[in-house]
Write a structure and sequence with these properties.
globular, TPR-like_helical_dom_sf, Serine Threonine Protein Phosphatase 5, Tetratricopeptide repeat, 137 residues, TPR_rpt
């Protein structure tokens, strides 16, 4: 299983790299490959990472409904694993998509959760998130 987890992580990293370069079709292909591998394991963290990358790609392609679905799944897994840093990062990006579809109430809830998570991790960046939150209220 270790090899499959590593393979999925590598494919996801390639997907993220393609996303960062604006190569969305290639990003989707690599992430689909990663998803196919990680789904054959019990590795939930790797699954969350792939879902998070896919959510970013779909958001970049203005496929907001799919991005929302994927961000929710990734956030749920990060939450169940108490992976606070990745949960906070995913929820912060999720907020942008929620705002873009006009769901300000959900965006406010996500930012409140990000603040709580950042406080649990020592408080770094809480002020910036509070400013974002106040801008939505």
């Amino acid at each position: 299983m270790g090899d499959m987890v590593g393979e999925a992580a590598s494919l996801n990293a390639l997907g993220a790299l393609h996303h960062d370069r604006g190569e969305h079709e290639q990003a989707l292909r690599r992430c689909a490959d990663a998803l196919g591998v990680v789904e054959r394991t019990v590795e939930r963290s790797g699954l969350a990472d792939v879902l998070f990358t896919l959510a970013k790609v779909h958001a970049s392609r203005s496929e907001r409904d799919e991005a929302i679905r994927l961000y929710r799944q990734a956030c749920d897994i990060y939450h169940e694993q108490e992976n606070w840093p990745n949960e906070a990062k995913a929820r912060l990006l999720f907020t942008d998509v929620l705002v873009s579809v006009g769901d300000t109430d959900a965006a406010v809830r996500e930012l409140e959760r990000v603040i709580m998570l950042r406080e649990l991790m020592g408080g770094a960046g809480v002020g910036e998130v509070r400013e974002l939150l106040e801008g939505l209220r």
